[in-house]
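// run 5 | inverse folding | seed 20
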C-alpha cells in the first residue's frame, strides 16, 4: 500500500475531491444560466464537457445544497415550480433539440422517472449538466441575489473569489 493510499484492504477507495477546474466549470454553467448569458454559456460548455461526469457530480452536490437552503428559508418550491423554472431558464439558451432534451429530461427526473429521463439524455452527460445547472440557477435565484448565489457556490466549492 502506498503512503497516499488511506484505504484498507477490502475497503473501497474514497471518492477523490473534485478538481478546482471541475468546480469552476460547474459554477460557470450555473452563473451563465443565472445571468441568462448565452455567450458565457458557450464559453463554459467546452471545459465542462471535458469532465462531464465529474461536473454532473459536482452539480448534484450544488443542487442538494441549494435545495436545503430553499427549505431552510421557507421559500415555497414544488416539483412543478422546478419543471417550469428549468424550462424557462434554458429557453433560447440552447439549440432547440438540446433545449427540448434538457426540459423533457428534467421533467421526467423531477417526477422520479429516471429511466425516461435517461432516454431523453441520449446518454449524453452534458444534458444532465445543463438540466442541473439550470435547476441550480433557478432555485438559487429563489433565495439569493445573483452575486450572492455565485459567491455562495464558490464558498461551498472551496474556491476563492475571482
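// decoded
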Amino acid at each position: 500500500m502506498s503512503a497516499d493510499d488511506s484505504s484498507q484492504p477490502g475497503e473501497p477507495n474514497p471518492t477523490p475531491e473534485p478538481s478546482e477546474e471541475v468546480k469552476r466549470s460547474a459554477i460557470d454553467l450555473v452563473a451563465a444560466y443565472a445571468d441568462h448569458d448565452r455567450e458565457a454559456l458557450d464559453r463554459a460548455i467546452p471545459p465542462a464537457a471535458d469532465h462531464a461526469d465529474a461536473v454532473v457530480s459536482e452539480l448534484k452536490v450544488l443542487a442538494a445544497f441549494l435545495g436545503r437552503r430553499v427549505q431552510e428559508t421557507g421559500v415555497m418550491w414544488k416539483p412543478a415550480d422546478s419543471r417550469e423554472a428549468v424550462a424557462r431558464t434554458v429557453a433560447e439558451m440552447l439549440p432547440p433539440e438540446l433545449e427540448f432534451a434538457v426540459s423533457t429530461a428534467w421533467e421526467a427526473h423531477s417526477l422520479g422517472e429516471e429511466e425516461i429521463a435517461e432516454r431523453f439524455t441520449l446518454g449524453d452527460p452534458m444534458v444532465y449538466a445543463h438540466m442541473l445547472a439550470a435547476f441550480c440557477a433557478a432555485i438559487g435565484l429563489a433565495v439569493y441575489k445573483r452575486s450572492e448565489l455565485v459567491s455562495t457556490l464558490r464558498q461551498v466549492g472551496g474556491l476563492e473569489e475571482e
